[in-house]
Amino acid sequence: QRSHLFVFLKDRFRVLLARIGLTPYYFPSIFYKKEADSTKWNVTTQMAKRIHQEFQRFNTPVLFVLLPTDYQVYPQLLSKYIKMFGIHPEEIDLEQPNRILASRFLEKSISVVDMLPVFVQKAQKDVRLYGRIDNHLNAQGHLVVAEALFPQIEQILKPKLNSRGG
Question: What is the model's pTM?
């Protein structure tokens, strides 16, 4: 499982393995348009609200960050997933989870940053944000997140630091 060769081969044979049902890869239901009215959005929003309230008890700011999947960012990867799982493109909306959660979080006064637009912009400039062996963020992806979040975090923390004389 941890061998780079194993992970490399598993990635290269992803489509074949998916077709015969021998892969942990799946396409999340949250991207299907038919899920737009699902109760899962309320559950997620309520959990975030509880976390927010708990931190508020300790006067600690909270900022939720929506990190996109690699196939939300790179259209060529989405094509692989569509082929791998036999998905009809008109059935899905890759921005749906981000749009719904951001809207609901804002309605509940929960601070949220959606990284999808930033990642798409970077990807269009041929910046590689995810690993080659797996689909986790690579060092560049983490740097892009940090650079995008820094102004937000500074805005949240500056008043607190100023009030403490720091």
Answer: 0.82
